[in-house]
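Q: What would this chain look like folded?
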Amino acid sequence: MSRIFLDTNVILDLLAQRIPFYDSIAKLATLADQKRLVLVASPISFTTVDFVLNKFESSEAVLSKLRKLKILCEVCVVNEEIIEKSLNSDFKDFEDAVQYFSAIQSGCTAIITRNGKDFKKSTIPIMTAYEYLNNI
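A: My prediction, written as structure tokens:
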């Protein structure tokens, strides 16, 4: 079964229902719910999404959304090895490096993001949710 890593921006697309990106990421969430693929997310995405959505919604509503997300996806480990690799990588953005090395360590076969340019050094495919759906 395919394991795909969700970058923070696509998680925000899903939970905030951001148009026009929502439909594609919602279809991926449905495939995960049907056990046709595995979604993986970083713990830093959970905290970032909480921070962003709390500016627009009640904390209760945000926590409810995060609980539902947790049912749909695996949370990967961010450990000392991931931080070390990220600190010493060629990535321009530290957070992107942490996301990338977390995806690699978790055995993901692709990273779903809307900021593909941030992952130029990737050894696995980088695509939008829409592109991923068109490739399966």
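The chain has a mean pLDDT of 96.
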